[in-house]
Amino acid sequence: MAESRARDASQRRWYAFRNRLGKRCRGFCAGISIFLAGIIFWGGFNMALEVTNTEEFCISCHEMRDNVYPDYAKTAHYKNRTGVRATCPDCHVPRPWVPKVVRKITASNELLHKLIGTVDTKEKFEAHRLALAQSVWREMAATDSRECRNCHSFMYMDLDKQEPSVQKSHNAGIARESGKTCIDCHKGIAHVLPKGP
After folding, report:
1. Of 15, 55, 101, 143, which has the fewest beta carbons less than 10 angstroms from its beta carbon?
2. Residue 57, in any domain of the structure
3. pTM of the model
4. Which of 71, 112, 120 is CA-nearest to residue 91?
């Protein structure tokens, strides 16, 4: 009888130990699983950001390929003597992470209009071109032409090699005092200016 009680007590201790160990292992395994899932999610999220930040992705829909890409292909941003090139995301997607994510979220509106066919023909696109351009101009003005300044900087401009009128406009002091930003003077640089006021 005493031997039976000792065996039962030993088994209870073993079961208690096994349960505590099992809970710790389950907790550890759950923690590792959540950590790995987080890494996979974060990697996938960043990969999606990078894939959607390519010129190929931008012109994969016919609206962009047929309407604005031909304009861009005729500009110095596409092909020039130095070979320095700005692609769609260089001008239309911010580099800092938070503004980039915000821009990607607002791009869902563009997907909606793709689905409902707002600009699915050349005629519809031209009818909306001014409003689309004004929207981009507003965004660029609101960020002080941040995406232009990724490549163009007043600090590194050789003003002596510019036309006198351009020198005056590009003088950093004048630009800041006037409250103007790149897009105020440089509309139509990469795309045809829309018809309208």
Report:
1. 15
2. no
3. 0.76
4. 71
